[in-house]
Amino acid sequence: SRIELGDVTPHNIKQLKRLNQVIFPVSYNDKFYKDVLEVGELAKLGTKMLNHVLNICEKDGTFDNIYLHVQISNESAIDFYRKFGFEIIETKKNYYKRIEPADAHVLQKNLKVPSGQNAETQKTDN
């Protein structure tokens, strides 16, 4: 079966808070939920934050890769990061201590253009 989530609104923000408490190993404060309402949708907030980090890394110019961990069952997060060019490169067993499944995928995004390619070729290949 497929579950689809709609927009976060003042009417369902408490449901989001409860879902997060059950699903995630961290607790988010009330400011987080206020920010979610101001942005409108959780995905937009995640996109904004990730773009901010990617822009900082691009401006700095010294980073070759970015790595992150995602719970293996979190398909929406994996799809989200893939849209930004991240790829699964490894799976770590028992990465999480208080959630099931405990395994995590390691995702990587290459920031440097591989030798032999120019930036335009890399953009059209993706």
TrEMBL record:
Chemical reaction(s) catalysed: N-terminal L-methionyl-L-tyrosyl-[protein] + acetyl-CoA = N-terminal N(alpha)-acetyl-L-methionyl-L-tyrosyl-[protein] + CoA + H(+); N-terminal L-methionyl-L-leucyl-[protein] + acetyl-CoA = N-terminal N(alpha)-acetyl-L-methionyl-L-leucyl-[protein] + CoA + H(+); N-terminal L-methionyl-L-seryl-[protein] + acetyl-CoA = N-terminal N(alpha)-acetyl-L-methionyl-L-seryl-[protein] + CoA + H(+); N-terminal L-methionyl-L-alanyl-[protein] + acetyl-CoA = N-terminal N(alpha)-acetyl-L-methionyl-L-alanyl-[protein] + CoA + H(+)
Record-level GO BP terms: mitotic sister chromatid cohesion
GO molecular function terms attached to this record: protein N-terminal-methionine acetyltransferase activity
Primary localization: cytoplasm
Signal peptide span: none
Localization per Swiss-Prot or TrEMBL: Cytoplasm; Nucleus
Enzyme class name: transferase
Enzyme Commission number(s) of this protein: 2.3.1.258
UniProt keywords, alphabetically: Acyltransferase, Cytoplasm, Nucleus, Transferase
Gene3D superfamilies xrefs: 3.40.630.30
InterPro entries the UniProt entry points to: Acyl_CoA_acyltransferase (IPR016181), GNAT_dom (IPR000182), N-term/lysine_N-AcTrnsfr (IPR051556)
Cross-referenced SUPFAM superfamilies: Acyl-CoA N-acyltransferases (Nat)
Residues covered by the N-acetyltransferase domain: 45-112
GO cellular component: NatA complex; nucleus
Family: Belongs to the acetyltransferase family. GNAT subfamily.
Protein name: N-alpha-acetyltransferase 50
